[in-house]
């Protein structure tokens, strides 16, 4: 292994660490290169590894290569991040392959079509190289200038032979917003003599760090729901090229050694073909040879898995592709002192470079096996007859988003053409969707739909379940329906565009639609008088006659001797034109239920929300809420860092939302006064609820396992100085040390779907039409229902586990426990939410709970 140490370079007013990386530092015998191909430094003025490159520098260099080299073409922009940064990709191969690139791309579709006649011998394999989906794992993206330079400039016969057999789709960074956030931090917090101490500021980025995207989401968990623009573009690129091998470059803890797939065998998704893992192992042999030649330690088949089909190295496995994960120990800056010695940024980059080249070699030499596997995956995959059916009542927006997700995976969706009764539910023609099981992407459809309760191993790197129709709270069939007649899904079936009819009484808005909250905020902001119904009724409307309305229906009415503001009418007209449920009232009299002048309509006010963020908080938890309110409810919020909260006059706000315990001193009394004066404090997560209860802000009682009770009794016995015999009787059973980590993992809940019983008459339940609600659970703490009979909007059922892993002990504890509790305090209320209602932005079925808590905060009380 060559030492990557160069003389220290001091640049006045622009300190730069002396280390950098060139081909001469990687190869014992530097390759002969084409001098007409520009080096990274010649284009950008920055050497690879000298510092962290920014998004624009990487793109500028790769564009220059595409202009200068016959082996590379720019494929253009496939997405644009929330921060406005383009995500681009390139094709790398021989000039001959690039000249017939369109033909090769067309052949990709033929390969997965069992009926198509395609000559695999004429087809190159496609290798998708993806780097740094986590922005604070930058060695991957920073390796791309040098990887691309070598692939374009090296005059090496072996390389040219490999490129004849492979087309590389080169994706230099998957998270440009996070990459730049981290690059700025690292470049701004090191000196001419950088510290290798892991405690140094350069290595400890503030929340949010560069791992996440603009809204602080982990984009590597967004393959399945593809809720963000980066993911949607990435998914489209994947299905456009249908690669044979997909590489996913990451970083891990600094004290580890390099990891590459295969992962832990027992944690492989049951739908993944065995040949997939055999090919993964074969490719791994090439990585092993490359790293052994340099004396770089590595490991496989432990720590990481291929179970969750929603991340970059596992998603491809159900599409006839082999996904490969790389994990390089992270320098998190210029360098760090580790248990293995000094780990430098250039050394990290060099390992990602080697893995890139060993992957190309493996793909070229295994081309025939990879193409055969992809062809046979689609020709021999299990297909069933019939359709899955799904519908939503009163919420076309949610159903349309569900369809968008399916289509993003190339899953075919149709419309139900005849009414069908199945599994005790009625699915109506034109309102329900039908998903055929007999289709090319039948395998991925199965993983989205299936419920799993039995597992070979009960330890998970990520979540243990992800059943999509439950995530969207759809009425759906669990088994295929054989008698469904279907027709093509047409965009026009989403709703007709209508004009807003005049009404001197006002307008009723169906609260069930997921777009209604954004409309409500706009109406309140426009100064409209908006009321919410606390009881169901049937109203007379000018366009639909008698219409049934449920809890949470909105009523926009003119104030006394006034008209509805023009801005509000304009917003209502826009909503009607988009098919939202807005109904002109024909009379205040209603045939059934409360009249429109009833005191069971409460006037709503404009919410003003504080979200506690910053040091000590969870970027994921706060990002999910920020994204929901900013992009879907279209409302501004005020984000206040935890250490600044005590300086804020909270009486200006209606809500404070916390997703982690508050560690800053001096704010507890402030929050208590805020609630008692009429504010709503939303506490999300078990640790947050437990902290608030300990601070006296609310009350919560917890269920305990026998072991927890035994530990508590032992602690009391010791505090009371009980006899040694009495203490000894309470000691736990002795167990082998080697089993400790696994036994602890078994107690965790790493993502399970629970059946909740929802009180639809409670303000937090407004807009739901069924008391059955699937909730995503990631905590192993279980809360008792409120002592007030009316104040537990969600209580889990007797046997609530729908899908995923939970130990028998946890299954016992969760039965009839509470997921959501309201604690009235003075004039305000504290909401205790153990679960994240907008988990990873795709749990659309529960996000309304948080939205209701914001708009209907004044209704949150504990009836006596």
TrEMBL record:
Gene3D superfamilies: Zn peptidases (3.40.630.10)
Span of the signal peptide: 1-18
Cross-referenced SUPFAM superfamilies: Class I glutamine amidotransferase-like, Zn-dependent exopeptidases
Domain of life: Bacteria
Keyword list, A-Z: Signal
Pfam family, one: Peptidase_M14
Domain annotation Peptidase M14: ranges: 58-232
Name recorded for this polypeptide: Peptidase
Species lineage: Bacteria, Pseudomonadati, Pseudomonadota, Gammaproteobacteria, Cellvibrionales
